[in-house]
Amino acid sequence: MTSRNFEILYKEARLNLEPSSPSSVVQLRVAPQSAYGRSSSSIANRSSAAAADEKAYRSKNLATASSIYHRKHHKSPRSFLWRVLENGSVLSLRASDVCKHQQHDADAPLIINMQFPSAIHNSCIGFADPKDTDALCVFVIDQSNQLYSITLRPEHFRKKTATEGGLGDACKLYTPPGFSFKHPHRLAVVNSDQLIVAMHDGGILKFDRTKTHDASHGTPWKETIYNVSGWGQSLLGLVPFQRNPIVRYDKINMELTAALSTAVTSMSLPDTAFLFTICVDHRMRVWDVRTGQILYTGDILNNTQRDPQEGLRWNIDPSQANLIRILDTRAPGQCMVATFSPIGAGEFKFWKVKANDQGSIHVADCFPNAHLVPPSPSSIDVWTLADFAVAQTDGVELWTLWKNNTSYRVYRLQLQVKNPSDPFSDGWKTVHIDNSVPAVETSGPWNSVDSTEKWLDLIFTPGRFSKSTLETALAVYEKGLGTYKETTSKAGKSIAESICSILGSTAALSRNSAGVPDYEQFRGTSEIQWIRFWRLLLELDKQRGEALSLVYDSDKGMVWTACADLIAAVRQCSDLDRVYHNLQDPERKDQEVAALVSAGLTFVESFTDSTSQLSKAALRAELYENSPRSDNERMQLFLDRAGFWPQVGDDDVAQVIETLGQNYQMVSSRLYDDLFDLITSTSEANSQELREPFTGFGRKVVVRSVQETVELHWQILFSQLILLVHMEFDIENDDENPLHSRFDVGAVFRRLIDALQRLEHIRWLTKTELSIPASRAIASGAASPVAAKRGQEEIYTMTALEGIAGHLFGLPDNHDEPLLTSITDYVLDICAPGSTTMLQTWLVQCWLLKEDRPDLALELSPFADQDPFSIYIQGRVFLALRDYDAASFHFRRAAIGLSVTLKHSDRHSAGLLDDTEWNLLNSGLPNYYSHIVNLYERHKAYSYVTEFARLALQFVHSSKKDATASIKTEMLSRLFIAATAISQFEQAHSALLAMQDEALQKSYLRKLVEKMCESGQNKALISLPFAGLQSKVDDILLEKCRTTRDVLSSVPYHQILYAWRISHNDYRGGAAVLLDRLQKLRLAGEGDKVGLAGSGEGDALDTQVTRQYLLLINALSCVSPKEAWILEDVVSPEQQEEEQKNTESKGDDLEGTLEELMKKLDASPIQQSAAATTLVSTKPEDDEDADLIAKMRVHSSRASVQDLTPRKLLTLGDLRKQYQTELDRIVAIQNNQFAFTDADGDDLMDMSL
């Protein structure tokens, strides 16, 4: 195809029109009622099921008409993108402002889809901006000739609650009587109270809103019909065989005077409006809207010599809709009109119009002797000029839109108004439209990533394909496989998981003839299926790019191309963009730089896929390593790793030499300086404090532009790095003037590496997409509030760049440049190596950690700096990933730097650190380590809690300052808790002894004792010294023994206390514990569990009770005879029976025991005194016993009247007797000897069987 090569000065950024959140879409049904009624209701969001075929996909997602309307009187929001969907039954509206008018203005993120009962006339959609009301008036005529008047306020685009009950009175319906015998063809809006409809017969129908209209007595609109030839001619046209010549279009006979394209202007005159129409007969007519008179009629090419016999040749096809544009000038009563004639090759004509408010008008040809025939993009293919726009900047600009099926081109021409003899001599400039298919690298053993991962990265690049395109492509692919099922979801799978599942099922790993798994065959089969799916995606996506209209925003200086399922923002090329896109014909000042860029790109294009990937791997190693090597060693290592040297042929070298000269004489340090100047921003826009913030729509424009700029810059600089290394080592002889003899090659190498590192960082931010809950997205400024359904957490999908820096995007308040230039300057500043837009890696990682995405934060670790706070954030990343060793390593590295006090600290962490945590940093090592202890404690990593708690205590000063004391107390507390949790009882014991707070120490002592007892660490408990706390330990164990009911299956506190007391030489105390356990065993009935003699189950006399007697006797035998006594509580038979019941029913019921004790404490003093004085005497057996009894009586006489239970003295002899009695009882039971007693306990008889 022969294409015309125009200089490229602009490029476009294509935006997907998918909402960031499903709740952003508001569905409204517009239903008819009576002729003057009104009806509108909200409907639930329709199913998001994928279209099953291409036809359904086009109907649901591709617009048949689309454009942007800009309001004149109100600014927030000011621009609205409208689209006609679903075969003309849905009109979709959304705000499309790039910048907010004022910083505090709320964003308008909602998309309003209004569903009409009948299909809409695409040419009968109009908008108006009332002067007195901040609203958008929408006027629609459907194919049933109903006129809808809808008033939308800014709240409708901001809050879903504004449309929950439908539009109500904001939507009004009217059935014009004039449509009963005329067919509307085009709607023109004069203002919110006046409409004009061009009819099929050449007449116009004017609608004037009735201000004081009552729906029950009148109509909302006053209709007035005006005709080209008056009423008589109009009525004559209704008579058969008396009609004027007609043109058949869309089943309607259209008169030659029917208007195909219209434009309305007031030319800044009050209470005046003029309607300009381009008609089928190739004439322009100017109507006075007030009177309905035609003020001017003339050929749109000013062809006054047209042969009447060639009338049909000059008739315009009624499908043409964009034939006239009006450029209002500042002078009242004047304007410039541009008309286009589609006849033949097409030609433009410019008219200067003057008028007054009296109804007179003068139309003059601006360039009567000049012919402007716009060149088509290709001389072979058929291209159609689909739309054009006229703008006033430094001069008059003409923008044109050309179409060829789904392809389009946009051109711009600067008119030389001061040179009427040759006004079009400036030449056409063009917009670069990237229709190239993304390159797909082949898969092979050299790939560092899996083939599936490679395809997923390519397909799911943010902004490349819409979700509906992916779902439809997958459905069509499944149909081809014969596995498609009509379901609205894939069992809860994401679209990526569904694609992998379906495509993965088409390839199976088989074995080759040798019986070995054939991985090559599997890889090849899988690759074929991915390529097939990829091509299907491209075919569907191509339809989304069909251009529908070209829009110029005169207020902001911005050009838009509205497509079927895209919106393309045209922006100015940067300096490097202009060099790259015009390499074949660069400007004179850029010829050497263009040669260097061209040589690098050509050199790298000769690489094979494997060589290219190895070179990129070598670059990644260079970007991520902090190498101590010299520049020459780094370049040599890069060359060895890349391994492209053997792949470079003589032809490749010769081509570079031909471009750069022998021995690369053109290459110099100045040339590289010129290259770096092209990627360095000269604008100070991003350094201004006061900004005009971008809207959510504008942020998408910026992110998409950054994506494209990063890819272009990376491609150029990567090729320059390869070329520089090649040229440096290609010349080995110093006599041939190598590069390092001319300039510092190492400095250029470092600059290239630094620039590529910045680009790699930005590329990661623009390619990484994540889903964020609405609450956090709104709080960060990356999204606007949208009410979701009750009980649902709404999710926003955005790139990492938009999420972390979206709230910082904006322009200076005093910028005077057009928006298409300002966006380029802003984007260039983001990508420049010395950018004022600081995207610190640690800040991005903080934000990702806040969003609970430590996996993504880890991917940024190679870009992290080595300052203390960055190292600390790396530790936080590993901590979130539960790699506690790596986290500990980074926390230790950052300790010194984050403990030093700073005068001015920057407290920015994307909400990761609160004020309390910030206060612990840069305030000494104890505070820093205490902060780390808190972090590990949240993750319950107690071994690291103990580690850093010990470090914090190590640096706590011995001063008695409150701050130091509180830190020490806190760290001891955390050390104790952590050590106890991981059973490091020696550390817990040490922390316990170091505590100064007695209450806290007592509480933790109880926890330690209980923990060790419950975990079976009895031996360790006994071995711990508990200096100064032994009595407290004894009290704790004694309390646990008293409250323990079930002494067999519960924690053996009695044995532990016995061992504790024995280890501390308190044999009588140990015996007392054993006696308490003995009593509880007998109450539990353990003494009656006697084995049968001769059963082979052991000694029948060996029971729990007898064993306990032996231990008790043994303990008392270890003391002197005079000290071999203990006291036993005397329990009455009633109390014993009650105790036994409690034991059987409650077991170890601590609450029940406490309740009983409270009752005893509440007993009357008389009862307590009586109980206290009741002592049981024992008969002395010898003098020693008598002495013991005397001592006991003295001791009992001193007993407090508050004792709850009577007690008696038990000596060693008493215990031995009881033991013998227990043995005799067991023997009697074994011999079946039972004693019968009466109620008083007297023996009646003994029976032996």
TrEMBL record:
Localization annotation: Nucleus
Domain called Nucleoporin Nup120/160 beta-propeller: residue spans: 78-577
Cellular component GO terms held in the UniProt record: nuclear pore
WD repeat feature ranges: 270-297
Domain Nucleoporin nup120-like HEAT repeat: 844-1014
Main location: nucleus
GO molecular function: structural constituent of nuclear pore
Sequence ranges assigned to domain Nucleoporin Nup120 helical in this UniProt record: 619-752
Any Pfam family matching the protein: NUP120_helical
InterPro entries: Beta-prop_Nup120_160, HEAT_Nup120, Nucleoporin_Nup160, Nup120_helical, WD40/YVTN_repeat-like_dom_sf, WD40_rpt
This protein's UniProt keywords: Nucleus, Transport, WD repeat
Protein name in UniProt: Nucleoporin Nup120/160-domain-containing protein
Organism per entry: Podospora fimiseda
